[in-house]
Amino acid sequence: KASLAHHRSSEIIGENARQGYLGGVHYDGECCLDDENPCVTKGPCYVRYKFNNKVEMMDIALLGIITTMFVAFMLVLGAQTFTSDAERLVLTPIQEMMDLVQRVSDDPSRPVEPKADGGGQYETRKIENAIKKITDLLRIGFGVAGSEIVRENLSSKNKASGDTIDLMNNPGKRIYSVFGFCMIEEFDHMTDKMGHDIMDFINDVAKVVHTNVNNWGGQCNKNLGGSFLMTWKVPDHFTKGSLNVDVSRIPYIAKTADRALLGFVKVVADLNREESILNYRKRKDLYIEHEDTGKLMPFKVCMGFGLHVGWGIEGPVGSLCKVDATYLSPHVNMAARCETAAKQWHVQVLCTEIFHSCLSKAAQKHMRQLDKVLVKGSATPMNMYTYDTFQDQPMVSKDSAEWKKWGDAGYVI
Predict the structure, then answer these.
(1) Neighbours of 226 (CB within 10 A)
(2) Among candidates 58, 48, 42, 63, which has minimal Cα distance to 17?
């Protein structure tokens, strides 16, 4: 009994346990009762037995503990894996979508940086990539002039319009800017000769114009066939919301005007340098008649440029069927009129007296006064200036060793 006291009932097999044969008692009716006289006295006898099953029960308990720990570990691992996958494939992409929309609403003109992993093939990543493409299309389609329209419609602070698109109720805003207007000369001739390939031509020219204007701080607003409207906006904090501003006294205006002039001069240089543009001179089907001799001459891509400074109303024009974000003002029209008038003086770059006064002193030394004219709608004569560009001269190729030498030396080219 003393030894049995250290065991549990489940650890004992025998008399007082459920296991065993007949409750732990074995009966034998033919057993011998007298050891001295075997098998003389016979009768029923029995044997009581008990077995110590503690070692087996310890093994079973240990295996149970191991099983419980394994199940717990798998549950924790499964929960962690599920949480990680849910966060990586669902929660994180959704949060990035929300952050993306917020960034676009804060600054629609800022390009969206693509992810390094390429977005993956999961549905949430595809949705995220779709949102990025949509925001890029908004940025490209509306441009800088439409930034306020996109911001107002995407901003969570704008609760008045709810889930509807509010474009036409956005009032125009007065801004100050350098306005540049440029047009491809003999564009009607190219449209007639090239037919459905005219898109390739206009996009080749647009690439040169947009790249150089953007590199020199300008923004591309709209394209009307063979003409382009460019702007170099003056930051709002320099004008402080004033309506009557002397543009020549605006801080930073000299740097802005210099960049506008350099941007257009770079366009002229690349029109005489880019291989895609020079190839049009080699096509005999594009030859054009000389205006004086009538002889067929190779077609050379040339552009005229007009520059002016003033205010403009920035806002949407159109309806919910189609909206253009653009600038409207007499100063925008003046830039277009300068480009048209450039042909009368047979120059490529024509700018107004106001634009000339905004240039830095170093830039003004390179300008040449053409004439003094009385513009329609104005009672005061105005000087007109040009920058001599010579569009038909050979230019150094960007792939040449000379170009790379200038670039390594740090020259502005």
Answers:
(1) 20
(2) 48
Give the integer Cα–Cα distance in Å for 143 and 376: 31
Using DSSP bridges, classify how beta strands 349-352 and 303-319 pair: parallel, antiparallel or unpaired: parallel
CB atoms within 10 A of CB 303: 25
Rounded-to-integer distance, Cα 353 and Cα 383, Å: 5
> How does residue 259 score in pLDDT terms, banded at 50, 70 and 90?
very high
Q: What is the DSSP string of 223-268?
A: EETTEEEEEEEPPHHHHTT-SS--GGGSTTHHHHHHHHHHHHHHHH
What's the predicted TM-score (pTM) here? 0.69
Closest to 105 in 3D by CA, of 70, 65, 149, 136: 149
291 CB contacts (<8 Å, ≥6 apart)? none
Single out the residue of 280, 170, 182, 283 nearest to residue 228, CA to CA. 182
Beta bridge partners of 51: 13
End-to-end, the C-alpha distance of the chain in Å comes to: 107
How confident is the prediction for the chain on average, in pLDDT?
Answer: 79
* Two structure tokens written together for 66: 């191991």
Residue 207: which pLDDT band, with cuts at 50, 70 and 90?
Answer: very high
As a whole number of angstroms, the distance between CA 397 and CA 413 comes to 11
In the predicted model, is pLDDT for residue 59 greater than 70?
Answer: yes
Calculate the alpha carbon distances from 197 to 184, 190, 191, 202, 361 in Å: 16, 10, 8, 9, 44
Burial of 205 (0-12, 13-18, 19+ CB in 10 A): buried
CA atoms of 308 and 331, how far apart (whole Å): 7
Name the H helices within 147-303: 147-154, 187-194, 198-215, 236-239, 253-271, 275-278
Alpha carbons 263 and 309: distance in angstroms, whole number: 15
Task: Please give the Cα distance from 136 to 130 (Å, whole number).
Answer: 10
DSSP 370-381: EEEE--TT-SS-
Closest residue by Cα to residue 297 from 309, 310, 281:
281
pLDDT digits (tens, 9 = 90+) for 219-232: 888 888 889 999 99
